[in-house]
Specification:
alpha/beta, six-stranded parallel sheet, four-stranded mixed sheet
Length: 470
């Protein structure tokens, strides 16, 4: 009897695998940007191809956009909890919340964007009311970094929001002045030798300055939490660079030398550094930053979550380093990751993030650009596809992979509004590309939003589907 059941289960499993292989997914061609001559075709997994899944009308939600499928302890603020082996954000009323957000929810600052704003809305209050409705109508329930926090939180019906502060960014802006406004050696993030100046005592003063403002938010139930800085270079060769590139009297050198002396002895030199030393130092170096910023944050606002410093998935060094994630898990409530230059997130890597850290993660930047937008699309890390509909197919494929993973608690599309190529005051990566859900005239990309809405409206039901399937 047991043998028969085993054979039957094997047959069912094989049949299921064969059925999946026969699914004809839509193909979407993508390339890195408009300057890349090579288009590559990818499968776009979409909700209509999920075996046995039927889309439903949106279920009733809480005021925060959470599902009411169950309820846990209500604490009055957002928090996280693992329920049946899946991580969830729990809203202030105790309901499960998947963060379906849009970053940079802002009305644009260029002359062209301001003219379009005045013609369409007439006031900031009208803009935030109408565009909050646009987000909700398409299944979004919050806004990410660099959004207009004051307008959002003071709206009649606020969206869930986040706050980003940049203590290291503030210090970096002044630090570079000591070198005439330009470092001799720096990467695209423009940190000297790709080193974050965590050991500098002067940095501590900037932490206090940057974080002092957050106490105004500490009783706001619509605030999810805080990011600090963005895409800092946590590279694996930090020990080598501290010991070989910094002057012997610099604070970074002295801290690294003391750490290395204690680990290897006073006679050890940079030539004695091993890969194990590099990994261990990176954790120590990263934890120095984490300790400083989280201590100040919790002092200023003990009620809200720390959402991390927005790891840069493109370089990937920190995202494959277990020691970095062990440190992140000690200090972050949710680990924030900006995800670029890959068609979809890796299930193996996402599982590693959860295992290494013991914490959930949130994808805080990702997007594709459409060739049909009429924009040059030369800049930015997001890939280029041919149409707005294909941008939506990319969205579906990507978010389905996130919803499958029990460590994922949401995503923030980057961003609300397209770049204006005429605005030369922006950094180069935000200069001329179709990143928005609306163009520079505040006209929504409906083919994109149509595909986004299908996933957004069914996100909670999809978690049940994937959990049952697994």
């Amino acid at each position: 009897m047991k043998h028969s059941i085993y054979v039957l289960l094997c047959f069912i499993s094989l049949t299921s695998i064969q059925a999946q292989k026969k699914i004809a997914y839509q193909k979407v061609e993508a390339r890195q940007n408009a300057l890349d001559p090579k288009w590559v075709a990818y499968d776009a997994k979409t909700i209509d191809k999920l075996p046995g899944f039927k889309t439903k009308k949106p279920e009733p939600t809480s005021v925060f956009g959470s599902s009411k499928m169950w309820q846990k302890e209500a604490t009055g603020f957002f928090r996280t909890q693992k329920v049946d082996n899946r991580w969830w954000i729990i809203d202030p009323e105790g309901y499960p919340y998947i963060f379906k957000g849009v970053a940079v929810f802002n009305a644009g600052r260029s002359e062209n964007q301001q003219k379009a704003f005045d013609a369409k809305y007439g006031s900031k209050e009208n803009w935030v009311k109408q565009e909050s409705k646009l987000l909700r109508d398409n299944g979004f329930n919050g806004v990410g970094a660099w959004s207009n926090v004051e307008l959002v939180r003071n709206a009649e019906n606020p969206l869930v929001y986040t706050v980003i502060i940049s203590p290291m960014g503030m210090y970096h802006s002044d630090h570079i002045k000591k070198f005439g406004g330009k470092y001799k050696q720096a990467s695209w993030q423009n940190y000297r030798f790709d080193l974050v100046m965590v050991f500098d005592k002067e940095f501590d003063q900037y932490i206090e300055k940057a974080i002092s403002e957050v106490s105004q938010y500490k009783n706001d139930k619509y605030l999810m939490g805080y990011f600090t800085d963005n895409e800092l270079p946590w590279y694996n060769d930090a020990l080598d660079k501290h010991l070989t590139l910094l002057a012997k009297d610099e604070q970074g050198y002295l801290a690294a030398k003391e750490w290395f002396d204690q680990r290897k002895g006073f006679n050890a030199s940079a030539s004695d550094i091993t890969q194990e030393d590099r990994v261990a130092f990176t954790a120590f170096y990263f934890e120095t930053y984490m300790k400083k910023v989280t201590e100040a944050l919790k002092k200023a606002d003990p009620n809200h979550m720390y959402l991390g410093c927005r790891f840069n998935q493109d370089k990937e060094q920190e995202l494959t380093n277990p020691e970095i994630f062990k440190v992140a898990g000690k200090y972050m409530d949710i680990i924030s990751i900006n995800h670029y230059r890959k068609w979809e997130p890796s299930q193996e890597l996402m599982n590693n993030w959860g295992e290494w850290s013991g914490k959930p993660f949130l994808i805080t930047e990702w997007y594709t650009k459409g060739e049909d937008s009429g924009l040059p699309n030369n800049t930015g890390a997001g890939w280029l596809v041919r149409t707005q509909k294909e941008r939506g197919l990319f969205y579906q494929n990507f978010t389905l992979e996130l919803l499958k993973n029990k460590n994922s608690v949401g995503w923030h599309w980057f961003k609300y509004m397209d770049n204006d190529p005429a605005d030369l005051s922006t950094d180069y990566s935000n200069r001329d590309s179709n990143k928005g859900i609306v163009n520079s005239n505040f006209e929504p990309y409906q083919p994109l939003l149509k595909e986004m809405k299908i996933i957004n409206d069914n996100a909670y039901e999809l978690t049940r589907y994937f959990d049952k399937k697994n």
